[in-house]
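Researcher: Go.
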Amino acid sequence: MSEPCDLSAVEARRLIGAKKLSPVELLRSCLARIEALNPSLNAVVAMDEAGALAAASAAEQAVIAGDGLAPLHGLPLGVKDLNETAGLRTTFGCLVHKDNVPARDEPLVARLRANGAIVLAKTNTPEFGAGANTRNAVYGATGNPFDPSLTCGGSSGGSAVALAVGMVPICTGSDHGGSLRIPAGFCGVVGFRPSAGLVPDGTSAAPFNPLVVEGPMARSMDDLLLLLGAMTGYERDDNFSRRDGGIGWGVGPGGWVPEIDLSRLRVAWSPDLGCAPVDAEIQETMARKVAAFAASFRLCERRDPPLADATAIFDVLRATQFAAGLGPLVEQHRAVLGPNVIANVEHARTLSLMDVGRAQAAQQKLLKRMRGFFDEVDLLLAPAASVSPFPHAQWYPPTVGGQPSKTYIDWLMLTGAVTVTATPVVALPCGRDRKGLPFGIQIVGPQGADGLVLGAARAIERVFASDPALRRPVPAVAPEAR
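Model: Structure:
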């Protein structure tokens, strides 16, 4: 360990509880790392330094007094700038809201504070999360920690970068078409897209269309599980939330996340899901990585899932979600909005009720086919992104899989297709690609099998850690890489 901010979240929390690490010391270490690296990366876009220091001091006094400590007690937290935070600027990456300072936390943030987290900073995101390239007119672009001229992905890009270089130990994220998974893959961190309702939200404008979910991001699976346990719970304004949603957390016997024996699992892997454009180099890298770890499973075979119409379904459902939440904003403030938000709402205006009805019916048939697929395999593996990180000055890569990109959606369908399946998925670092940049994989399981996916990802992470070609890459700017 070079500095306290380089500790894992689990180890930092253990040391805090053992009175061997002061929450103030940890926070000051995070602040020093932000001061050193954020000017070149632009991951953190707003901070409550005074409020965080006061909270850290109170956390320190609670430790000294021997009080009961919450799971995240004293851990600095990065909050994606799509989540409202009391007294701390929340812009959604949009000029319309550039001066917005919420009076209260949204439920997820309040839940994390109640579980001991110290809200230190907001992390950058594209405007309303649209585009998977973290740049906006309020704060500018966030650079990849392995090459600041390249994109870190998005929309949870600021969170992924802040984690990768040790600015904070835990961060919130959210996922629509890959907003957790792509930046996790591009930055060498872990992200989890849970089943709808597991991490309750209650702020969606389309309450029965759970394409958007909140989820945790971290540097390791154990850190992710620590944060996820604090994110769960019951939220009455989330129509998918369950009253038992926060019960049973823990790993191993009696816990909600089982210890997984990989040698018992049947695994399918696909370089393109049979439906998504993917660069040849990414497909080759995926095949090479799978060859290195396939023997860990009972069965690991090349097999595409039945997702042929997933792109068409996602195209319609995504547009309707944007129209529900942002249609009025486009009507009133079109002149100051970015192209991706406008394009989504404009596309929704071209759709008829019949188009929406057909997409919903097609999704139901797709879900039935995927249930059959998961009767025959336990997990599905695929790349986390269809291309390597590209310059963030581009809104999206000009070509994907050798074909010209028509819209920014074209390069997202490796993750967008999985979104349509309503399945839980972990994005896990898997070494580097041919360019020396981080490579990530998606680990997808059956509907509702969050525990299986998390347990399997944790076991796979251990396999990867033993192989230099597979283990999590660390950016050179982070002291632990030196």
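Model: The longest strand covers residues 425-432.
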